[in-house]
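User: Design a sequence. Structure:
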C-alpha cells in the first residue's frame, strides 16, 4: 500500500458503476444541519482532503489552501459574519474554509508559481521559462487578468470550486454529507482569520464547506431537465 498525506491508499481494485456514481450525486445535498454527535473518522476525512489535493487547476498551479476549522471558539467568532452557516458552523464535524491566492501569488514571476514549476512539477529550466511566458501571455492578453486584482483572485477562486466539487462528491460516495457555503461577509471573515493567525498574506477566502452527517432526510432533489442545460453543436 502507498501512504500519502496520512491516507492509506490501496491499488484501485473496484471500479464504480455509473449507477453507483449517480446515486452519490442524488444522495448529496446542501445539508443545512448536521448531527453534532457524529464525527467523521480521521481516515475518511483524509480521503476527502486527498481528492481536493489531487484536483486539477489551471496550468497545474494549485492556487488553493484548505483550512480545516475544528476549533469551536473560532467557529463561534465566525457565526455573526456568516449568515449562510448558522446551523452548519455549530454542528458540522469538519468545517473547511477554502482559500485562493491573490494576484501577488499568481503572477508568472511570483515565488509560488516559480516554486510550482521548479520544485513541484520539476520542469527543466528551458521548459519552465517557456511555460512562464505562455502563462504570462494568458494572464495579460488572453484572459486580461493582470490589470484587475479582484478578477485575478476570482480566477483563482473558481479553481478552488473544482477541488470543492470533488471533495463533496467523494464525501457522498462514502456516505458523508456536505454543504457549500457562500453566505458570509468576506472582509469580516478574513479579518477574523487574520486575527486568529490563520490567514496568511497573499490569500483570500473563496468559499466555505461543511462536512458531517445529516440529522434528517432532505426533500427530493430538483434540477432542470437535461435538454434545458445542454447545447449540442
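Assistant: Done.
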Amino acid at each position: 500500500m502507498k501512504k500519502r498525506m496520512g491516507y492509506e491508499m490501496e491499488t484501485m481494485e473496484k471500479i464504480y458503476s455509473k449507477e453507483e456514481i449517480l446515486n452519490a450525486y442524488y444522495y448529496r445535498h446542501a445539508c443545512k444541519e448536521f448531527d453534532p454527535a457524529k464525527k467523521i473518522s480521521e481516515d475518511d476525512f483524509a480521503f476527502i482532503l486527498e481528492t481536493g489535493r489531487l484536483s486539477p487547476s489551471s496550468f497545474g498551479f494549485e492556487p488553493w489552501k484548505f483550512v480545516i476549522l475544528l476549533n469551536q471558539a473560532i467557529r463561534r467568532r465566525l457565526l455573526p459574519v456568516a449568515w449562510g452557516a448558522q446551523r452548519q458552523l455549530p454542528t458540522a464535524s469538519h468545517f473547511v474554509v477554502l482559500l485562493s491566492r491573490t494576484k501577488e501569488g499568481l503572477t508568472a514571476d511570483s515565488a509560488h508559481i516559480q516554486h510550482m514549476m521548479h520544485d513541484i512539477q520539476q520542469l527543466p529550466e528551458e521548459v519552465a521559462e517557456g511555460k512562464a511566458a505562455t502563462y504570462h501571455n494568458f494572464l495579460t492578453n488572453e484572459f486580461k487578468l493582470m490589470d484587475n486584482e479582484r478578477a485575478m483572485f476570482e480566477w483563482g477562486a473558481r479553481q478552488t470550486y473544482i477541488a470543492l466539487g470533488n471533495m463533496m462528491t467523494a464525501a457522498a460516495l462514502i456516505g458523508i454529507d456536505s454543504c457549500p457555503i457562500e453566505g458570509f461577509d468576506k472582509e469580516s471573515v478574513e479579518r477574523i482569520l487574520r486575527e486568529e493567525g490563520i490567514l496568511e498574506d497573499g490569500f483570500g477566502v473563496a468559499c466555505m464547506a461543511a462536512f458531517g452527517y445529516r440529522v434528517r432526510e432532505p426533500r427530493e432533489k430538483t434540477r432542470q431537465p437535461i435538454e434545458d442545460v445542454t447545447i449540442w453543436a
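The CA atoms of residues 164 and 181 lie 11 Å apart. The chain is about 40% helix and 15% strand.
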